[in-house]
Design a protein that fits this description.
mainly alpha, elongated
Length: 73
Amino acid sequence: MTELLEKAISKLRKLPSERQDEAAEVLLSMIDQDVGAVRLSPEQVAEVERRLEAPAESASHAEVLAFFQKSAV
């Protein structure tokens, strides 16, 4: 554990239990959002690779403009 985290935990221990719970929820939320923890299945990796190899179809500016004008959006 880092020195900074040790210092934070030391300060947290002095807070009322409700504040400790709030801090724990924030920390757990940060950990759950850690992008590095995301693991793709082999099938998902293959799909990403397939999509990266195939050029994406895209509409021109004129086509998009015509679509929205036609749709009255």
